[in-house]
Amino acid sequence: MAKGKAKQEKKEIAKTNKAQKNESRKLKRSRNPGLYEDGFGDLNAQLRTLQLCTKDIAGDGNCLFRALSDQYYGSDRKHKEIRQEVCRYMCDHEDDFKYFVEDDRSFKDHVRCMESNGTYGGNMELVAFARLFNVNIKVYQPGLIDYLM
């Protein structure tokens, strides 16, 4: 019984952390709404200071996996393979990911949906990719502090 309670507490902590992060984003955006009008705001300027730049990737639901393929292999053509490898990794490490599934669906449903071409990936998939390929991923967002996975 204690194990089940610990799992539930871990899930509640994850939900609370997500809610706090969303509230923080809303507050930052309300303080400077012009920064977020086009979805990129001042991201390009932010990246230029780091000698980085954005790259256009097709926004077809495969964009996360296309971007990962582009950065890892130099081309977005392996996005389908990366999607499948990431989903397989998540299944093989279910205990690491199952508490972070959103939208009140099961972990297996999440992975089954994620295996489908055109399904948008998120933070869980970024973490799975980083662990699977043993790389660090740094996420940049306009006007927000970048974070490392």
TrEMBL record:
Residues 1-25 have a biased composition (Basic and acidic residues). Residues 52-149 form the OTU domain. GO terms for biological process: protein deubiquitination. Residues 1-33 are annotated as: Disordered. InterPro entries: OTU_dom, Papain-like_cys_pep_sf, Peptidase_C85-like. SUPFAM superfamilies: Cysteine proteinases (SSF54001). This is OTU domain-containing protein.
